[in-house]
Amino acid sequence: MLFIEYPKCSTCKKAKKYLINHNIDFLTRDITKDIPTKEELKKYLSLTEHKNINKFFNTSGMKYRELNLKDKLSKMTEEEKIDLLSKDGMLIKRPLLILDNSILIGYKEKEYQKIKE
Hints:
Helix content is 38%, strand content 12%. The protein is of the alpha+beta class. Strands 2-1-3-4 form a four-stranded mixed sheet, sandwiched between helices. Strand 1, helix 1 (10-21) and strand 2 form a beta-alpha-beta unit.
């Protein structure tokens, strides 16, 4: 299991604490130092239920607002969106928890509770 986080993010800290408290083994990766590549993002997208790259954008982040992506995303191709995400980890919603056959984007405790089921 791979936990991709921004260590200063409070949501990432909550998610990580949940994993630790429930004795779930995982590897960590800092999204700002080791940004997911285009190939990785395409793989992660294939693991999502809805196959929607927009779910990967951190819509509440400063970088998202700075770039005015709310208005620009609808005009971009999927490839352009993946390219943009692969260049700046702060644009990616976090944490990402990569499981064998799925991915959890963001932290919702109910989703994390299903990990060990």
